[in-house]
Design brief:
Radius of gyration: 17 Å
Strand order of the largest sheet: 1-2-4-3-5-6-7-8
Largest sheet: 8 strands, mixed
CATH superfamily: Alpha/Beta hydrolase fold, catalytic domain
Length: 238
Amino acid sequence: MKELKLKLSSAPALLVFRDTPEKAAFRGTILFYHGLKACKETNMKEYLSLAERGFLAVGIDNFAHGERQSSEFENFLLRSTSAEGTFLDMVCKTVEEVPAIIDELVRKGISDPEKIGICGISMGGYITYGAILADKRIKAATPVLGSPVWMSSGKRSPHNEPKKFFPVALLAQNAGKDESVPPQFAREFHSTLIPYYKEAPERLCYIEYPLSKHFMLETDWNELWNKVLSWFDTFISL
C-alpha cells in the first residue's frame, strides 16, 4: 500500500491507496474522520482495509486536531464555556470544510464526484451525519458510535432535517452500553428516517451491539467494520 500526505483546502490529509490515487478514485473515495483527541494517523488499520478493497482512503485531521492541534485546540479551550459546546463547535467547523475538501480532490483529478463515501468514528460519526447535509455528492455514509442529535447546537443539529438524508445510503452502528455516545439518539433518528427511505429501504440500516461500550468488544468491532466495508462495496460502485 502507498501513502501520501497533503493539504486539502485547509485540512491536513493522509491518502492511502493500492496503486495510484487516480486508479483508486475510479473505485471510489472514502473520507474518514477520527475521534476526539485522536488524529488522522490513528485509523491506519481502517485505511489499509479500505485500500485493500480498491478504494482511495482519505483520512482528515478534524478541526483543532492532529497537525492543527497546538494553536486551534488551545484557542478553542480558552474560549470554551462548556465542554459540549466546544466539542460541537469543532464538529461544525470540520463539517464546514467538507465541500472544499471534495472540491480539491475532484480538481486534482483524484476523486470521482459520483463515487464519494464518508466514514467517521465517535466524533467522526457526528461529523459524518453533518457532512451528509453539507455536500450532496456524498453517496454513502457509515457513522460509527456517533449521534445526529447535537444538544447545544440548535438548528445545526442534523436530526432536525430528516428529509434531506435520502437517497444517501446510510449505515449507522452504535454500542448498546455506550455511555460516551448513548445509542438511543441514533436509534430514534433512524426510526424517523424510515418513511423517507420507503422507495429504497435497502439504503438505510441501523445496527446496535448490545454488549459493547464505547470501546467495543473486539468481536463486535470486527463485525462492525466488515459491515462498513460491505456497505461501501455495495453502494459506492453503483
